[in-house]
Design brief:
With about 90 residues, this protein is an alpha+beta fold. The chain contains three helices and five strands, in the order E-E-E-E-H-H-H-E. The strands form two sheets. It has a three-stranded antiparallel beta sheet with strand order 2-3-4, with helices on one face. A two-stranded antiparallel ribbon has the order 1-5. A hairpin with a 2-residue loop joins strand 2 and strand 3. It starts with 5 loop residues before the first strand and ends with a strand.
Length: about 90
């Protein structure tokens, strides 16, 4: 089983100058994501696996696969710590 990241449906997110700003009303917090984290966030759609996201990151940012995988893992862990993701299994 692979964990499929999915954004919480009750969050408000808006793109501001190539970066996503996420409003979490439940936690009364605002999160500003950098360009890489924003790219990963947009792909937390409940359909893309972390591997899929890393492959897309390689293409979009021209980074090596190991760097992309590390970046995706770190971002997903941070999103999880902040309570921004729902859990979905596939």
């Amino acid at each position: 089983m692979t964990n499929i990241p999915r954004r919480r449906t009750d969050l408000n997110a808006r793109l501001v100058e190539d970066e996503v700003v996420v409003l979490d009303r439940k936690a009364d917090q605002v999160h500003q994501l950098n360009q890489t984290a924003s790219f990963i966030w947009e792909r937390c759609d409940g359909r893309s696996t972390p591997r899929d996201i890393a492959e897309q990151l390689v293409e979009a940012f021209e980074v090596d696969p190991d760097t992309a995988a590390t970046s995706v893992t770190a971002a997903l862990q941070q999103f999880t710590r902040l309570g921004l993701l729902e859990s979905s299994r596939k």
